[in-house]
Amino acid sequence: MTRRRIHFAAVLLVAAVIAGLLSQLVLGGSDKVEIGNGSVSALARAAHTTDALPQSVLSYPFAARNFASANGNGSRLLQVHGTLRLYGVPGKEGMLCLIEVDSAADTAGGACADRSVLLTGSIYMADRQEDGSRLVVGLVGDGHTYAEANGRRVRVENNAFVLGGVQGSSVTIGSTTATQSIDLGG
Amino acid sequence: MQLRSRRRRSIAATVVAALALMLVPVAGETSYIYWWQRNMPSNGLGYDRITAHNHNYNELYFGPNAGWSSEVWVVTPAGYRHFDKRCTGICFNAHPPYYYTYAYCSNRDGGTHFVYDCMDQW
User: Fold this and answer.
1) B25 and B42: one domain?
2) pLDDT above 50 for A22
3) For testing contact with chain A, the best of B76, B85, B106 (most A CBs within 10 A)
4) pTM of this prediction?
5) Chain B nearest CA to A109, separation (Å)
6) CB neighbour list of residue A59: distance below 8 Å, 6 or more residues apart
7) Which of B87, B95, B119 is nearest residue A124 as measured by Cβ atoms?
8) Helix H or strand E encompassing A100
9) B3 and B23 co-located in one domain
10) Closest to B108 (Cβ–Cβ): which among A112, A113, A185?
């Protein structure tokens, strides 16, 4: 009787292991494609005076709560598009932050997320424009080379991209060998 | 006797009203007012539809382990949406106080995590 129980338990165990292996091999452990290892080279380059965040951004409650240091130490200016400036900032507890400042519109925004997000996507912000489209800005990890939506592609420079006029709810980012999809929501 | 008492009360009320009128503008100049909502459930919507204001700052806070979809925006009493920002994780939007609006924020991905703070400022 005891031997039959042991056999039954062993069969159950083997079946569970096989089912687990099959689900990983056939379905995949995660359906998300990974690019790079989450590192951001732009944050490691030597600092310039232009890398400092505007005082107005540092004065928001967001800065004290999320930046690794309240004065934004380690920030880097990633891109300048007209009056729009994008900064990368080290965040607390392994987070990375993307900050956008538009001096003409007198607006600023920021997003902080865990660095692991960069493996399968981007730390992004998608601002709704008056015409209903979205201006999407993103921080991506090393290895990403482009962002694309509605058939329009822009290059990733300094680990960041700026993609205007996005209609719909999806942006594609990718490297030379792989692509990922960012869901902007409905 | 009754008339004198009523007069005293009316003088006292006038003094209190005058003091309030003098002090309220001073308080408004020196302090921020925050609205916030905590522990919103998964896919929850946080909003302040009671007090429309010319907001200049909205923030959504998940805590330091953030990576989920979020959104902050404002809506005028007439229903027009402005300063709508969708983000990854913790998110803020600072803007000029152009519009008399209500503040909203949302955790949009339906996961089992909480939004710790949904906050606005004017």
Assistant:
1) no
2) no
3) B85
4) 0.80
5) 4
6) none
7) B87
8) strand A95-102
9) yes
10) A185
Q: Whole-angstrom Cα distance, residue A35 to residue A120?
A: 7
Q: What ipTM score was computed for the predicted complex, to two decimals?
A: 0.82
Q: Please give the Cα distance from A181 to A172 (Å, whole number).
A: 5
CA distance B47 to B70: 14
* Residue from the list B59, B86, B119 with its beta carbon closest to the beta carbon of A126: B86
pLDDT in tens, A62-87: 999 999 999 999 999 999 999 999 99
| Whether residues B66 and B113 fall in one domain | yes
Chain B residue with CA closest to A56: the answer is B94
Q: Tell me, yes or no, whether B73 and B112 share the same domain.
A: yes
B87·A108 Cβ contact <8 A: no
> Which pLDDT score, from 0 to 100, does residue A26 have?
40
B108 and B63 in one domain? yes
B18 and B45 belong to one structural domain: no
Domain containing B39: what range?
34-121
Same domain, B43 and B76: yes
Contact in structure between A160 and A147 (CB atoms under 8 Å): no
Query: Taking 50 as the threshold, does the pLDDT of residue B3 lie above it?
Result: yes
Q: Residue B39: how many CA atoms within 13 Å on its side-chain side?
A: 0
Chains A, B: CB pairs < 8 Å: 95
Residue for token pair 């003098």: B22
